[in-house]
Amino acid sequence: MAKEIILYNLAEHVTDEEYRDYVVNEKGPFLDGLSSAKKFELVKITQAPTGEIPYKYVGILHLNSMDEFYQKDAPSSEFQAFMKKWQSMVANFHILAGEEVY
Predict the structure, then answer these.
(1) Which of 42, 69, 77, 102 is least surrounded by Cβ atoms within 10 Å, i.e. has the fewest?
(2) C-alpha dihedral over 2, 23, 88, 85, to 10 degrees?
(3) The pTM is what?
(4) Which range of residues forms the domain containing residue 34?
């Protein structure tokens, strides 16, 4: 299964509570509704064995097809508007894409 994994922190002006509300009411439903997506999940990192947490949030977008996502959904005006709003709320983001091995 194809996945897009997004590692990030919140921008200084955004609280965890504000972001949770945004995810529950906008981001989650929007991403779950993409034709190329099976589901979206968000993990808030609270602990690390080393004590270092470089990214506080990990978003995982489970995709039906990487090609469908990057050729159809990602270029759409709706997705671009979503990305513009999301990028104003986060800092230090890193986006990765790959295939599930196990």
Answers:
(1) 102
(2) 80
(3) 0.92
(4) 2-99
Residue 55's CATH number: 3.30.70.100
Residue 28 DSSP symbol: H
3 state SS of 7 = strand
C-alpha 100/C-alpha 102 separation (Å) is 6
Q: Which residue has the tokens 């990765």?
A: 96
Name which of 73, 57, 67 is nearest 97 in CA terms. Answer: 67
What would the pLDDT profile of 12-62 be if each residue is shown by its tens digit?
999 999 999 999 999 999 999 999 999 999 999 999 999 999 999 999 999
CA distance 58 to 9: 9
Q: Rounded to the nearest 5 degrees, what angle is found at the Cα of 95, between the Cα atoms of 94 and 100? A: 130
What is the separation of C-alpha 44 from the centre of its chain, rounded to a whole number of angstroms? Answer: 11
